[in-house]
Write a structure and sequence with these properties.
The protein is mostly helical. The protein has a domain of 142 residues: Tetracycline Repressor, domain 2 (Orthogonal Bundle), CATH 1.10.357. 79% of the residues lie in helices and 0% in strands. The protein is elongated. The termini are far apart. The mean pLDDT is 86.
Amino acid sequence: MPKNVDIKRAKILDVAKKRFAHFGMAKTTMAEIAKDLSFSKALLYYYFPDKHSLYTAVMEHVINDMMQKVENYLTTITTVEKAVIFMIETRMDTFRENYNLFEYSSSLFMQNPSEMYKNLGPFFEKERDQYCRILRIGIQNGEVIDEQVDESAELLLFGLMGMRAGVLSKGVNSFLFPSPNDFDRILSKQKRLAHIFLRGLRP
């Protein structure tokens, strides 16, 4: 893809992200995004045929940025627990900063789970792989002992993801996506789980 096309696409994603994050998917139109960009609607539709495809691309862009922050941190990892906590906090910060963006993803998942998984499933695998890397570094450093790293990383990820469902099931929030007030409660429980989980792997 030509460099100027990459630049234009990146600019569209950045502007659309701000719109979606501030106003939400439903209250954002392609015409408004084109106006923010000083693009014609025809040019915007050249890159993204509809709002749904643009929304999906923005989601992928935001998640990629989140995972890149973790990648950068993993080059300076000091302890396993600090690295896991960094991943948890980075994920939560991303959700907070893009609340309206991620909230809409819950309704999309209910409408078309297979399509959402096709788009976002690879990110789950990348996140699991990052936890694998953290555990392997911990093994090399003598912090943890684990002969089933892949399975342990997946168990940890499932457990952390389950905290959201656990909090919402207690009637704190009747929606699929946490309210802003739920984030601190979920984050606290995720950190506690990570501490207990890693303590079980220590020599």
